[in-house]
Amino acid sequence: MKLLEEKILAEGIAESDSILKVDSFINHQIDPALMKQLGEEIAAHFTGKGITRVATIESSGIAPALMTAAALGVPLVILKKQPSKILNQDLYQTVVTSYTKGVSYELTVSSHFMNENDHVLIVDDFLANGEAATGAIRLIRKSHATIAGMAVLIEKTFQPGREKLTEQGIDVFALARIAKLEPGMIQFVEENICQN
Ligand code: 5GP
Q1: pLDDT in tens, 55-69
Q2: Mean pLDDT (whole number) for 48-55
Q3: Residue 46: what pLDDT?
Q4: Centroid of ligand 1 to alpha carbon of 2 (angstroms)
Q5: For residue 35, which of 70, 84, 77 has the smallest C-alpha distance?
Q6: pLDDT: which is higher, 191 or 146
Q7: Nearest CA to ligand 1 atom 13
C-alpha cells in the first residue's frame, strides 16, 4: 500500500539487515489517522469473507487489529501472553517458542471469545519468521474456529513467514512488502529505494 510505504520511507529506520524500526507511527507512538486507513484497507481486502472476529497477539498488533475490526464491524480478540499456571477449562492455550527472541510464552484465549462459530482474521504489525502467527493459528484451531487469513502491516519477504503460513493453507495479505534492509536503506518488493 502506497501510503504505508511512503510513511516507512519517511520515518522508518533500518537498524540492521533484518530489523526495521517504526516506533514513530506503529510500535511506540501510533499515528491514529494512518492506522485507521490501514485498518480500512485490510478490511476491504477481506470483506465478504464471513469474518466474525479479528484476533491479534498482544501487544503490537492491537492498533491495526482494532482499526480492522472496527471497519469490519466485528469484535477484536486479543490472544494473551500468560503464564501456563493459569489453568481454567474455559481457556485454550498453546506454547509459542520464539527462536528469534529466544523466549517461550503461553498464548491463551477464552472459549467465550473464540469457538466453532467463528471465522477469524488474524492481524499483526509485522510478519517476519512467522513464529507468532503460527502460534496464533494453532490456538485458533484449538478453539475449533476457522481462519479467514492473516493480514500484516509490514512483511519482510526475505524471512520465511509467508512461506510457513501458505504451507498451512493460510491466505496472507501484507500492506507493505520489504525485499531488503540495510542500515540506512529500505527496499520494497516494488523496487522503491530510500537512502536515509
Ligand atoms: P515473527 O518472527 O514471529 O514473524 O515476528 C514476531 C513479532 O516480532 C512481530 O509480530 C513483531 O511484533 C516483531 N517483529 C519482527 N520483525 C520486526 C521488525 O523488523 N521490526 C519490528 N519493530 N518488530 C518486528
Answers
A1: 999 999 999 999 999
A2: 98
A3: 98
A4: 21
A5: 70
A6: 146
A7: 126
CA torsion angle for 9, 10, 15, 20 (degrees, to 10)? -60
Q: Pull the grid cell for residue 57.
A: 497477539
Nearest protein CA to atom 23 of ligand 1, as residue: 126
How far apart, in whole angstroms, are the C-alpha atoms of residue 192 and residue 65? 27
Element of type H or E holding 145: none
> What pLDDT is stored for residue 87 in this prediction?
64
In the chain, the amino acid numbered 195 is Q
Residue whose C-alpha cell reads 467465550 in the numeric block: 112
pTM: 0.94
Distance of alpha carbon 125 from alpha carbon 151, whole angstroms:
9
Q: Which helix (H) or strand (E) holds 69?
A: helix 62-72
Report the distance separating Cα 55 and Cα 44, nearest Å. Answer: 17
State the CB neighbour count (10 A cutoff) for residue 170.
Answer: 18
